[in-house]
Design a protein that fits this description.
The chain is an alpha+beta fold and 217 residues long. It has helices spanning 12-23, 43-48, 73-84, 92-122, 131-150, 164-178, 192-202, 205-211; strands at residues 4-8, 28-32, 56-59, 68-71. The chain has two domains: 4-87, 3-Layer(aba) Sandwich (Glutaredoxin), CATH 3.40.30; 92-204, Glutathione S-transferase Yfyf (Class Pi), Chain A, domain 2. It has eight helices and four strands. Helix 1 links the parallel strand 1 and strand 2. Helix 1 (12-23) packs across helix 6 (164-178) and helix 4 (92-122) packs parallel to helix 6. The longest helix is centred in the middle third of the chain and has 31 residues, at 92-122. The radius of gyration is 17 Å and the shape is globular. It binds glutathione. Glutathione (GSH) binds at residues 11, 13, 35, 40, 52-55, 72-73.
Length: 217
Protein backbone atom coordinates (compact mmCIF):
# COMPACT_ATOMS: atom_id res chain seq x y z
CA UNK A 1 0.00 0.00 0.00
CA UNK A 2 1.31 3.47 -0.89
CA UNK A 3 2.05 5.84 1.98
CA UNK A 4 -0.44 8.52 2.95
CA UNK A 5 1.17 11.92 3.51
CA UNK A 6 0.14 13.54 6.79
CA UNK A 7 0.66 17.28 7.26
CA UNK A 8 0.49 17.93 10.97
CA UNK A 9 1.83 19.19 14.28
CA UNK A 10 1.30 17.56 17.69
CA UNK A 11 -1.66 19.76 18.64
CA UNK A 12 -4.93 18.03 19.60
CA UNK A 13 -6.32 18.39 16.06
CA UNK A 14 -3.14 16.95 14.59
CA UNK A 15 -2.84 14.14 17.14
CA UNK A 16 -6.29 12.80 16.26
CA UNK A 17 -5.11 11.88 12.80
CA UNK A 18 -1.78 10.36 13.75
CA UNK A 19 -3.61 8.28 16.38
CA UNK A 20 -5.99 7.04 13.67
CA UNK A 21 -3.18 6.26 11.20
CA UNK A 22 -1.32 4.30 13.89
CA UNK A 23 -4.38 2.44 15.14
CA UNK A 24 -5.44 1.59 11.57
CA UNK A 25 -1.93 0.36 10.67
CA UNK A 26 -1.88 2.59 7.62
CA UNK A 27 1.55 3.36 6.14
CA UNK A 28 2.18 7.10 6.27
CA UNK A 29 4.80 9.78 6.07
CA UNK A 30 4.41 12.62 8.57
CA UNK A 31 5.47 16.11 7.54
CA UNK A 32 5.57 18.79 10.21
CA UNK A 33 3.86 22.07 9.37
CA UNK A 34 5.15 24.63 11.85
CA UNK A 35 2.12 26.89 12.30
CA UNK A 36 4.12 29.20 14.59
CA UNK A 37 6.38 29.97 11.63
CA UNK A 38 3.47 30.45 9.20
CA UNK A 39 4.18 27.29 7.18
CA UNK A 40 0.42 26.71 6.83
CA UNK A 41 0.30 29.67 4.42
CA UNK A 42 2.77 28.36 1.82
CA UNK A 43 1.31 27.89 -1.70
CA UNK A 44 2.25 24.17 -1.56
CA UNK A 45 0.26 23.61 1.62
CA UNK A 46 -2.71 25.68 0.45
CA UNK A 47 -3.02 23.25 -2.48
CA UNK A 48 -3.56 20.50 0.11
CA UNK A 49 -5.73 22.51 2.51
CA UNK A 50 -7.20 25.76 1.15
CA UNK A 51 -8.10 26.67 4.75
CA UNK A 52 -4.41 26.76 5.84
CA UNK A 53 -4.82 24.62 8.95
CA UNK A 54 -3.32 21.35 10.13
CA UNK A 55 -4.11 18.50 9.91
CA UNK A 56 -4.50 17.49 6.28
CA UNK A 57 -3.68 14.34 4.35
CA UNK A 58 -2.97 13.30 0.79
CA UNK A 59 -3.93 9.74 -0.05
CA UNK A 60 -2.06 8.66 -3.19
CA UNK A 61 -4.71 5.98 -3.73
CA UNK A 62 -7.88 8.02 -3.27
CA UNK A 63 -11.46 6.93 -4.01
CA UNK A 64 -10.91 7.00 -7.78
CA UNK A 65 -7.43 5.52 -7.53
CA UNK A 66 -5.88 8.96 -7.89
CA UNK A 67 -4.23 11.24 -5.26
CA UNK A 68 -6.87 12.75 -3.00
CA UNK A 69 -6.51 15.61 -0.48
CA UNK A 70 -8.62 15.63 2.69
CA UNK A 71 -8.86 18.59 5.11
CA UNK A 72 -10.82 18.98 8.40
CA UNK A 73 -9.89 16.47 11.07
CA UNK A 74 -13.42 15.09 11.50
CA UNK A 75 -13.72 14.44 7.77
CA UNK A 76 -10.24 12.88 7.72
CA UNK A 77 -11.18 10.49 10.53
CA UNK A 78 -14.34 9.39 8.70
CA UNK A 79 -12.39 9.04 5.43
CA UNK A 80 -9.72 6.83 7.03
CA UNK A 81 -12.30 4.78 8.94
CA UNK A 82 -14.27 4.12 5.76
CA UNK A 83 -11.10 3.36 3.80
CA UNK A 84 -10.04 0.70 6.30
CA UNK A 85 -13.40 -0.43 7.66
CA UNK A 86 -12.08 0.19 11.18
CA UNK A 87 -13.27 2.19 14.23
CA UNK A 88 -16.57 3.30 12.58
CA UNK A 89 -19.07 0.49 12.68
CA UNK A 90 -21.38 -0.18 9.75
CA UNK A 91 -24.17 -0.91 12.23
CA UNK A 92 -26.47 2.13 11.83
CA UNK A 93 -26.97 2.58 15.58
CA UNK A 94 -23.29 2.38 16.52
CA UNK A 95 -22.27 4.43 13.47
CA UNK A 96 -24.70 7.23 14.35
CA UNK A 97 -23.59 7.28 17.99
CA UNK A 98 -19.94 7.45 16.89
CA UNK A 99 -20.68 10.33 14.53
CA UNK A 100 -22.71 12.15 17.20
CA UNK A 101 -19.72 12.12 19.57
CA UNK A 102 -17.34 12.99 16.77
CA UNK A 103 -19.47 16.01 15.85
CA UNK A 104 -19.75 16.90 19.55
CA UNK A 105 -15.97 17.18 19.48
CA UNK A 106 -15.82 19.12 16.23
CA UNK A 107 -18.57 21.60 17.15
CA UNK A 108 -18.14 21.76 20.93
CA UNK A 109 -15.02 20.41 22.61
CA UNK A 110 -12.54 21.59 19.96
CA UNK A 111 -13.70 25.19 19.52
CA UNK A 112 -14.49 25.73 23.23
CA UNK A 113 -11.36 24.10 24.67
CA UNK A 114 -9.34 25.90 22.00
CA UNK A 115 -10.74 29.29 23.01
CA UNK A 116 -10.27 28.41 26.67
CA UNK A 117 -6.60 27.57 26.03
CA UNK A 118 -6.09 30.73 24.03
CA UNK A 119 -7.35 33.06 26.75
CA UNK A 120 -6.09 31.03 29.73
CA UNK A 121 -2.56 30.37 28.49
CA UNK A 122 -1.66 32.61 25.59
CA UNK A 123 -3.62 35.90 25.57
CA UNK A 124 -2.85 37.08 29.10
CA UNK A 125 -0.90 40.14 27.99
CA UNK A 126 -3.36 41.18 25.30
CA UNK A 127 -6.56 40.65 27.29
CA UNK A 128 -6.69 41.34 31.01
CA UNK A 129 -10.49 41.27 31.24
CA UNK A 130 -11.61 38.19 33.21
CA UNK A 131 -14.69 37.54 31.06
CA UNK A 132 -13.22 35.27 28.31
CA UNK A 133 -11.48 32.96 30.79
CA UNK A 134 -14.63 32.80 32.92
CA UNK A 135 -16.84 32.10 29.91
CA UNK A 136 -14.66 29.37 28.38
CA UNK A 137 -13.82 27.79 31.75
CA UNK A 138 -17.52 27.43 32.49
CA UNK A 139 -18.17 25.96 29.06
CA UNK A 140 -15.15 23.62 29.24
CA UNK A 141 -16.32 22.31 32.61
CA UNK A 142 -19.86 21.92 31.30
CA UNK A 143 -18.57 19.83 28.35
CA UNK A 144 -16.42 17.73 30.70
CA UNK A 145 -19.59 17.12 32.72
CA UNK A 146 -21.33 15.83 29.59
CA UNK A 147 -18.44 13.41 29.01
CA UNK A 148 -18.45 12.38 32.69
CA UNK A 149 -22.12 11.49 32.40
CA UNK A 150 -21.64 9.66 29.09
CA UNK A 151 -18.83 7.54 30.50
CA UNK A 152 -20.96 6.26 33.36
CA UNK A 153 -20.96 2.50 32.81
CA UNK A 154 -19.10 2.73 29.50
CA UNK A 155 -15.51 1.78 28.68
CA UNK A 156 -15.38 4.09 25.66
CA UNK A 157 -17.71 6.78 24.35
CA UNK A 158 -19.62 4.24 22.30
CA UNK A 159 -19.97 1.48 24.87
CA UNK A 160 -17.24 -1.17 24.54
CA UNK A 161 -15.99 -0.12 21.10
CA UNK A 162 -12.94 2.10 20.67
CA UNK A 163 -13.94 4.44 17.84
CA UNK A 164 -12.84 7.54 15.97
CA UNK A 165 -14.91 9.53 18.51
CA UNK A 166 -12.53 8.54 21.32
CA UNK A 167 -9.58 9.33 19.04
CA UNK A 168 -11.00 12.81 18.38
CA UNK A 169 -11.74 13.75 21.98
CA UNK A 170 -8.89 12.28 24.01
CA UNK A 171 -6.16 14.64 22.70
CA UNK A 172 -8.29 17.66 23.60
CA UNK A 173 -9.05 16.47 27.13
CA UNK A 174 -5.45 15.48 27.84
CA UNK A 175 -4.24 18.84 26.45
CA UNK A 176 -6.08 20.66 29.26
CA UNK A 177 -3.38 19.26 31.55
CA UNK A 178 -0.16 18.84 29.50
CA UNK A 179 -0.80 21.74 27.14
CA UNK A 180 -2.79 24.41 28.94
CA UNK A 181 -1.68 23.44 32.50
CA UNK A 182 -5.25 23.93 33.66
CA UNK A 183 -5.66 20.85 35.86
CA UNK A 184 -6.23 22.87 39.03
CA UNK A 185 -8.00 25.79 37.41
CA UNK A 186 -10.63 23.52 35.81
CA UNK A 187 -10.67 21.17 38.84
CA UNK A 188 -10.20 18.15 36.58
CA UNK A 189 -10.19 15.79 39.59
CA UNK A 190 -13.96 16.35 39.74
CA UNK A 191 -14.30 14.27 36.55
CA UNK A 192 -13.01 10.82 37.65
CA UNK A 193 -14.63 8.83 34.85
CA UNK A 194 -13.16 11.18 32.25
CA UNK A 195 -9.71 10.87 33.85
CA UNK A 196 -9.94 7.06 33.93
CA UNK A 197 -11.03 7.01 30.27
CA UNK A 198 -8.10 9.27 29.26
CA UNK A 199 -5.72 6.90 31.03
CA UNK A 200 -7.36 3.85 29.43
CA UNK A 201 -7.21 5.31 25.95
CA UNK A 202 -3.65 6.64 26.25
CA UNK A 203 -2.46 3.25 27.54
CA UNK A 204 -3.10 1.83 24.05
CA UNK A 205 0.41 1.66 22.54
CA UNK A 206 -0.66 2.83 19.07
CA UNK A 207 -2.68 5.73 20.42
CA UNK A 208 0.26 6.72 22.62
CA UNK A 209 2.54 6.57 19.55
CA UNK A 210 0.11 8.73 17.57
CA UNK A 211 0.21 11.41 20.25
CA UNK A 212 3.94 11.91 19.64
CA UNK A 213 3.96 12.41 15.86
CA UNK A 214 5.18 15.81 14.51
CA UNK A 215 6.35 17.07 17.91
CA UNK A 216 6.93 20.72 18.78
CA UNK A 217 10.67 21.30 18.97
N1 LIG B 1 -11.62 22.50 12.16
C1 LIG B 1 -10.23 22.25 11.87
C2 LIG B 1 -9.39 23.02 12.85
C3 LIG B 1 -7.91 22.89 12.57
C4 LIG B 1 -7.10 23.88 13.36
O1 LIG B 1 -7.64 24.80 14.00
N2 LIG B 1 -5.79 23.71 13.32
C5 LIG B 1 -4.91 24.64 14.00
C6 LIG B 1 -3.93 23.87 14.87
S1 LIG B 1 -4.74 22.95 16.11
C7 LIG B 1 -4.11 25.40 12.97
O2 LIG B 1 -3.68 24.86 11.98
N3 LIG B 1 -3.90 26.70 13.21
C8 LIG B 1 -3.12 27.52 12.34
C9 LIG B 1 -3.75 28.85 12.06
O3 LIG B 1 -4.86 29.09 12.55
O4 LIG B 1 -3.15 29.67 11.35
C10 LIG B 1 -9.94 20.74 11.96
O5 LIG B 1 -10.54 20.10 12.81
O6 LIG B 1 -9.14 20.23 11.17
Amino acid sequence: MQKITLYSLATPNGQKISIALEEMNLPYEALTVNIMKGEQFTPEFIKVNPNSKIPAIVDPAGPNGRPFCVMESGAILVYLAEKTGLFLSKDPFIKSETLQWLFFQMGGIGPMFGQFGHFFKYAGEKCTHPYPVERYSTEARRLLGVLEQRLDGRTFLVNEEYTIADMAIVPWVSCLDWGYKAKEHLRLSEFPRVNAWVERVLSRPKTAAGMKVCPFN
